[in-house]
């Protein structure tokens, strides 16, 4: 696998979830990706969340998606037992912020998230997890307990040698705005959202 990342800088980052080592990586396109590492991660099956960037959800708490709640729940779990959160610059399932907002307009006209991406000329999900794999390798991690509902994320990590020893669901109670978004995740993208009656 061709090297796509370089470690650039590390600093301490105190947060409401505890103290982390914040590590910045640069990829071959000049984008910066982020690893938050808490506690002792050596020689264990490490708790890991791979979070793709979602400005609207993570920062502005958009009700269209479940990204912010998944991010916060993952950080709460990491705070309890140490682990890693990878924050990858893959906005809008990999189509970028501008196209994501264009997709929002198409969704407001009646399309679902998959249809909107495809109408713009993209695949339903354009994300690539090789950068996450390389960051984990740089951190010396080969076996993880992965917090995810997304089977493609599991495939994307295992394809390059990361062993997923356990999948930990991040189940979010739907709101009236994102209920159909979650239904599409389950029915069209195969996400594991059957737990706790997330999709009726």
Protein architecture, described:
The chain folds into two domains: 5-90 and 128-197, Rossmann fold; 93-126, no CATH class. Strand 2 (18-27) and strand 3 form a beta hairpin. Helix 4 (97-108) packs across helix 5 (113-119). The longest helix is centred in the middle third of the chain and has 15 residues, at 67-81. Strands 1-2-3-5-4-6-7 form a seven-stranded mixed beta sheet, with helices on both faces. The chain is an alpha/beta fold and 200 residues long. 36% of the residues lie in helices and 26% in strands.
Any guess at the CATH architecture of the largest domain?
A: 3-Layer(aba) Sandwich
Please give the radius of gyration in angstroms: 17 Å
Topology as a string of helices (H) and strands (E): EEEEHHEHHHHEHEH
Silhouette: globular
* pLDDT averaged residue by residue: 89
**Mind describing the biggest β-sheet?**
7 strands, mixed
Q: Can you describe this structure in just a few lines?
A:
With 200 residues, this protein is of the alpha/beta class.
List the helices and strands and how they pair.
Layout: E1 5-15, E2 18-27, E3 32-38, E4 46-52, H1 55-59, H2 67-81, E5 83-88, H3 91-94, H4 97-108, H5 113-119, H6 130-138, E6 143-147, H7 151-158, E7 163-168, H8 179-189
Parallel strand pairs: 4-5, 4-6, 6-7
Antiparallel strand pairs: 1-2, 2-3, 3-5
Helix pairs in contact: 4-5
């Amino acid at each position: 696998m061709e090297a796509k990342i370089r470690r650039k800088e590390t600093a301490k980052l105190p947060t409401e979830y505890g103290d982390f080592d914040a590590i910045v990586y640069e990829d071959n396109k000049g984008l910066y990706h982020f690893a938050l590492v808490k506690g002792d991660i050596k020689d264990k099956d490490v708790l890991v969340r791979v979070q793709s960037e979602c400005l609207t959800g993570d920062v502005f708490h958009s009700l269209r998606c479940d990204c912010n709640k998944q991010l916060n729940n993952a950080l709460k779990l990491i705070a309890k037992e140490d682990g890693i959160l990878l924050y990858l610059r893959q906005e809008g399932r990999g189509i970028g912020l501008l196209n994501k907002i264009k997709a929002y307009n198409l969704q407001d006209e009646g399309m679902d998230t998959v249809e909107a991406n495809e109408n713009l000329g993209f695949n339903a999900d354009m994300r690539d997890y090789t950068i996450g794999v390389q960051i984990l390798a740089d951190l010396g991690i080969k076996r993880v307990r992965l917090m995810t509902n997304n089977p493609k994320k599991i495939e994307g990590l295992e394809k390059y040698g990361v062993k997923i020893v356990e999948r930990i669901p991040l189940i979010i109670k739907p709101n009236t705005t994102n209920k159909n978004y979650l239904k599409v995740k389950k029915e069209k993208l195969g996400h594991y959202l059957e737990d706790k009656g997330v999709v009726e």
